Amino acid sequence: MTSKIVLITGASSGIGEATARHLAAAGHHVVLGARRTDRLRQLVAELTDAGHSAEYAPLDVTDLGSVQAFVDGAVARHGRVDVLVNNAGVMPLARLDALRVDDWNQMIDVNLRGVLHGIAAVLPDMTRRKAGHVVTVASTAGYRVDSPGVVYCATKFAVRAVSEGLRQESKDIRVTLVSPGFTRTELTHSGGDDEIRNAMRTLAESVGIDASAIAEAIGYAVAQPTGVDVSEIVVQATAQG
Ligand SMILES: NC(=O)c1ccc[n+]([C@@H]2O[C@H](COP(=O)([O-])OP(=O)(O)OC[C@H]3O[C@@H](n4cnc5c(N)ncnc54)[C@H](OP(=O)(O)O)[C@@H]3O)[C@@H](O)[C@H]2O)c1
User: Where is the signal peptide (predicted)?
Assistant: First the structure.
């Protein structure tokens, strides 16, 4: 297997962290981005101590300049980006009539605009090289609207559309959408309505699967030969029903 240069957004916890561990253990070089650089520093130290290849850089996906610098830095150091895992996301839940407009904007900025920023940053180089792979982490919320997650669902429906559109436009670049169901991470630890958040946290902790299950699905897509595009994977807890 060829070692790939893999960039992961939102690698400081949850699915991003699990994906970093999985892909680094599979022999790839992982470049980890998030705002909590103390977490990233610790993870990179752990991975490199175990003999894997990893580095990190500060990243705010809501800022195109930050995403471009994250990608450009990796290209300058390694000559290319083989895989971008567009994973960063937030989920402050509340009913629409609670009018938490700042939360709506944050979800749009991180979950949708952040994914588009990632695509904008890697696409010119991948197009020029006629190679590359864009993996986007959506959600089962991208297939079914459930209150009180309406705006969260809207962002995930939107990234599903973006990923499918990118796949249709790309004859050389592989495009994968991975949609998790309830997964035990920090997603339900902050933001949104307190009562709803606590209920979702309890649910995720009781029926949710480990983030490593999602990392393995991403690893499967990454491991396929160049001509094979794993377009969509849904991975959810059996108990989710
Ligand atoms: N857990 C679930 O049940 C579930 C289900 C379906 C889909 N998902 C999706 O899975 C993805 C990962 O979430 P998770 O469950 O692993 O939750 P998590 O543990 O809270 O991880 C979210 C990650 O996103 C990063 N992030 C948030 N805002 C960011 C920003 N502005 N710039 C850069 N990074 C940012 C966080 O890092 P910093 O705070 O350090 O920046 C963190 O590393 C999300 O897209 C989420 O929607 C999760």
Answer: none
CATH code linked to domain 5-229: 3.40.50.720
Q: Evaluate if pTM is beyond 0.85.
A: yes
pLDDT in tens, 95-120: 999 999 999 999 999 999 999 999 99
Which positions of the chain have pLDDT values less than 50? none
Domain ranges of the chain: 5-229
Q: What is the whole-number distance in angstroms between the Cα of residue 213 and the centre of ligand 1?
A: 15
DSSP per-residue letters across 88-150? --------GGG--HHHHHHHIIIIIIHHHHHHHHHHHHHHHHT--EEEEE--GGGTS--TT-H
Q: How many CA atoms lie within 13 A of 64 on its CB side?
A: 6
Known active-site residue 56:
no
**CB of 18 shorter than 6 A to ligand 1:** no
